[in-house]
C-alpha cells in the first residue's frame, strides 16, 4: 500500500522493509499470499438407500439475506478524502487499485469452502499507528463496492476504537456490550450507512475483562449471528495492536484470515515475528506492506485509467 500523504520522498534508498525483502524470506513467517491448499478430499461414495418418496425439486439459491435493518447513516465523503480513504463513487485512484488487488485475494479465500471462517478477516499489526484502521476501512469500502458482497466492519480495538470517528458515525452499543450482556442482541448494535453494502459494528464499552469475554463460549455464538443466512457477507475486524493488547491473539481463534499490516520504515522484523507467533491460531496470515513510497517493480496504479499523468 503506498503512502497516501504528501510526505516528500526520502532523500536516499529504499525503506527498511524493502531493503529487508531482498534477504529475508517472509514466507518463513506466514503462508504465501495465495494459500497453496491441498485439493479437497473426494467425498466417500456409499450406496444410498432407495428413496421412499420422489425427491423435492432442488430449490433455487436464495438471494443473500439483508438482516441488518438499523438506521442508515450518511458518511461524509469529504471526510473520507481528507483522511486519504477510498471515496465511493469517485474515479479510479492508485489507492483504489491497490485495494482492489488486496481484496480480490481475500475474497477468493472467503469463498473457499475448505477454509473455516474465511469470511472473517482480522486486520492486525504489531504496534499502534501502523495502519490497521486505515487498511481495514479501505478494505471495507473496497469490498462494499463489489456487486454481490456486503461487508460488516467491526471495530475490535476495544481500548482505543477509531472506526466510528474515521467514518463520522455516531457512537452506540457494540460488540463488547453484546458479549458482556446476553440481553443485548448484536444485530441491534449494527449501524447501516449510505454506502450500499457497508455496515459497521462499534466496539462498545470496554469492560476491563475484554479478553476474558472474547475467550468465552458466547463469542462464537455472537459472531455466528453476524453472518447467519448471509453467505455473501464478509466481516472485517479492525484489531488492537498485537504486541500491546491481548484481545488480538484471542480474536485470531475466530477468524479464517489475518491481514498483517507491516508499515514500511516502522515495523521491525523481531516485532513482526513476535506478532505473527501470537496470532498463530489463525492458519492464514497474509502480510500487507503499508506506507511504501516507491515500487521496485515500477507499479504505479491509478495512472492508467484516464492517463492522469
Ligand atoms: N498508506 C497510508 N497513507 C497515508 N496515511 C496513512 C497510511 N497508512 C496509515 N496512515 C495514517 O497513519 C495514521 C495511523 O494509522 P491507523 O490506521 O490509525 O493505525 P493503527 O490503526 O494501526 O493504529 C492515521 O492517521 C492514518 O490515516
Ligand atoms: Mg486503529
Structure description:
Residues 121-246 form the AAA domain. Pfam families: AAA_31. Keywords: ATP-binding, Kinase, Nucleotide-binding, Transferase, Tyrosine-protein kinase. This is AAA family ATPase. This protein is of the alpha/beta class and 309 residues long. It has a domain at 89-304: Rossmann fold (3-Layer(aba) Sandwich). The protein is 28% helix and 13% strand. The chain has 10 helices and 8 strands. It has helices at residues 16-21, 77-82, 94-110, 132-144, 163-167, 175-180, 210-215, 217-227, 247-251, 269-278; strands spanning 72-73, 120-125, 150-155, 191-193, 198-201, 233-238, 257-263, 285-290. The chain is globular. It starts with 15 loop residues before the first helix and ends in a 19-residue tail after the last strand. The model is unreliable at 6-25 and 31-66 (pLDDT under 50). The protein binds adenosine-5'-diphosphate and magnesium ion. Magnesium ion is lined by residues 132-133, 157, 162, 238.
